[in-house]
């Protein structure tokens, strides 16, 4: 009888992989775990801590409750903020009640400081980190439809992991020469091309409505601006697409003063920086 207990299965080495980066942070996944870790520099610790607080608030307030229609875009569930080393090491953890979850996943017990310390030590860079739900990649069956926008000679590049949905921009061909497969951008025209005649995709209009619903919840329920946030498309499970809102390190308060109601341009300038 064959046995599964060979030495290669007994002690898995938990490998970390960088799955995204931006001007502010690097994002890692650990093999076998469904968490993403956004890591930044020690100098930026306070900003990341604030980002964690914002994700925590948005996760609760943007989740549909009662008679609300569910929103297409969801916020990844936050697990915790952790700053390693030194006297001012810090740890904060999410305490979202199970009934508030916006994903199908069952909520387990929250992360502990010991968990965070161990997870942080497994990452190749040490710094303040924010742990949240890992967004699954674009399903394999859908990726070829997006690859058609890769420039010639990109056959060896991996499939897109996520797509940024930039519906307010026209992305010139030249911008796609440097392919970012972690987060490939789609403008509304390209999205319309990939989504038409395929029931796996919501229509471009439904996506735009979903962005509006999320933005309105961010503004009016949570009281935050949407500065520099990203609307992205990834996977939900093996074959389905999932839509997520991420990247809140530049978000500030959404300030409503009476003149904003009268002078739309003032309000837009004050809360500017919304990408889509
Ligand atoms: N929860 C997640 N699951 C999977 N991938 C993620 C997750 N969060 C972020 N990423 C990936 O990491 C990339 C960088 O993350 P993020 O945009 O938060 O970093 P940033 O440095 O703040 O970016 P920017 O410079 O645009 O402000 C994202 O574009 C996305 O590809
Ligand atoms: Mg950012």
Could you name the key traits of this structure?
276 residues, alpha+beta, 6-stranded antiparallel β-sheet, 5-stranded mixed β-sheet, binds adenosine-5'-triphosphate, binds magnesium ion
What can you see in these coordinates?
This protein has helices at 7-10, 45-61, 113-121, 143-147, 188-195, 204-220, 258-262, 264-270, and strands spanning 16-21, 26-30, 35-39, 73-74, 78-83, 90-93, 129-133, 162-166, 183-187, 230-235, 241-246. Mean pLDDT is 84; it is low at 5-12 and 98-106. With 276 residues, it is of the alpha+beta class. Strand 5 and strand 6 (90-93) form a beta hairpin. The strands form 2 sheets. The chain has a 6-stranded antiparallel β-sheet, with helices on both faces. The structure holds adenosine-5'-triphosphate and magnesium ion. Adenosine-5'-triphosphate (ATP) binds at residues 19-25, 27, 36, 38, 76, 132-135, 162, 182-183, 228, 230, 246-247, 249.
Characterize the largest beta sheet: strand count, sense, and whether it forms a barrel. 6 strands, antiparallel
Bound molecules: adenosine-5'-triphosphate, magnesium ion
How are helices and strands ordered from N to C? HEEEHEEEHEHEEHHEEHH
- End-to-end Cα distance: 58 Å
Unreliable stretches:
5-12, 98-106
């Amino acid at each position: 009888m064959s046995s599964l207990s060979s030495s290669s299965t007994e002690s898995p080495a938990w490998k970390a992989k960088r799955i995204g980066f931006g001007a502010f942070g690097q994002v890692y996944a650990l093999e076998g775990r469904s968490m993403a870790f956004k890591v930044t520099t020690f100098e930026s610790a306070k900003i990341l801590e604030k980002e964690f607080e914002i994700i925590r608030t948005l996760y609760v307030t943007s989740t549909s409750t009662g008679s609300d229609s569910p929103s297409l875009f969801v916020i990844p569930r936050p697990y915790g903020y952790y700053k390693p080393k030194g006297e001012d090491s810090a740890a904060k953890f999410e305490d979202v009640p199970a009934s508030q979850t916006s994903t199908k996943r069952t909520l387990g017990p929250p992360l502990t400081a010991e968990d965070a310390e161990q997870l942080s030590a497994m990452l190749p860079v040490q710094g303040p980190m924010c742990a949240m739900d890992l967004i699954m990649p674009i399903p394999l069956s859908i990726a070829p439809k997006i690859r058609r926008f890769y420039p010639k000679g990109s056959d060896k590049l991996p499939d897109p992991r996520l797509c940024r949905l930039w519906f307010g921009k026209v992305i010139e061909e030249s911008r796609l020469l440097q392919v970012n497969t972690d987060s490939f951008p789609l403008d509304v025209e390209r999205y319309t091309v990939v989504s038409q005649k395929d029931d796996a995709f919501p229509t471009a209009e439904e996506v735009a409505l979903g962005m509006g619903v999320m933005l309105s919840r961010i503004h009016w329920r949570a009281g935050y601006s949407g500065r520099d946030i990203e609307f992205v498309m990834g996977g939900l499970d093996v074959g389905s697409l999932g839509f997520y809102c991420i990247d809140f390190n530049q978000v500030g308060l959404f300030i409503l003063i009476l003149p904003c109601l009268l002078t739309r341009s003032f309000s837009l300038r004050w809360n500017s920086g919304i990408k889509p």
